[in-house]
Amino acid sequence: MGSIKVITFFNNKGGVGKTTTVYHVAWMLSEMGIKSIAIDLDPQSNLTSMFLSDDRLETIYESEEPCTVLNSISPIISGDPYEPVHIEPITSKLGLILGDLALSTFEDKLSDAWLKCLDGDAYSFRIMSIFNTIINDAAQRFHAKYILIDVGPNLGAINRAVLLSSDYMIIPVASDLFSLQGIKNIGATLHTWKQQWDKRLEQKPAKTTFTIPNGNIKPAGYIVMQYSAKESRPVQSYLRWANRIPRIFKEYVLNDNIPTNYTVEDDPNCIGLLKHYRSLAPMSMEAHKPIFLLKPADGAIGAHLYAVKKSYEEFQLFTENILTHCK
Fold it and tell me: Which residue of 60, 68, 88, 316 has the smallest Cβ count within 10 Å?
């Protein structure tokens, strides 16, 4: 994919703030003057609804305007030529590829294609390469340097195809038992998918009109979500689970069994600790703006306005950390 970096944010445990993270990182890249595209590949389409106003959402989905990601997937499924994906301009530096609730109907087609790739079936490889096709097309037309992908919290066929078409995976995690289980599941599953895809690549057709992804995805690290700050450090109850994350990530995702004594605060695999922004979060949702761009007109006054300014610095540093981990 040349200089384009494709980063998928993934955890098979829901409710960890994954979509909100993609939204804020995409906006911060725009603020930093870096061209990027956010792609909503979660059939729930929450990322799309965060970016777009209610009026725009209604125009798109009620009039069935052909501008969701599914409108580029459907022709390929039918064996027709690829239709260039619609890129919704958010800013001059930020584009959005819209999600679609009907994307989940594509799961069965991908599962079927996954099996038939073992027979070297060209159509099945075309289906498995569909996200790769969309990513490359969109990046080229928008001149994007980064592609940020939001996916649903499951280990299904869509996420398998998306991850195999990505350069990096970032795991947002909460500080709880189920997030630790999620890291274990992701690690084991990702290794299996890569091995199985390598086996299928041995059967790929000699000549194709599309690019088949190499499946060479790298785990870039993890993000610990929504800790409550106390003198800018996580509180003790939070650390009970958080400090088990470095070992679990190293062992299950990186396949490195060498013991580690890192805490979550000094672990090189930890990209960042994101605070819980409390009352700023609903304000952000209401205004369809990231937390760090809220204005007094949006309700950010007094102490809120100070928190907004502080959050800008925090998200800028956080986004720079992501870029460092995804070189």
Answer: 316
Smallest Cα–Cα separation from 160: which of 192, 183, 135? 192
Q: Rounded to two decimals, what is the model's pTM?
A: 0.94
Domain-located, residue 266? yes
Residue 221's domain comprises 5-281
Neighbours of 33 (CB within 10 A): 8
In a domain, 17, yes or no: yes
Q: What is the CATH number of the domain that holds 145?
A: 3.40.50.300
Instruction: Give tens-digit pLDDT for 113-146.
Output: 999 999 999 999 999 999 999 999 999 999 999 9
Strands of 168-173's sheet in order across: 88-89, 94-97, 36-41, 146-151, 5-9, 168-173, 218-227, 270-275
Residue 170 in domain: yes
- Model pLDDT for residues 96-112, shown as the tens digit of each residue: 999 999 999 999 999 99
310 part of a folded domain: no
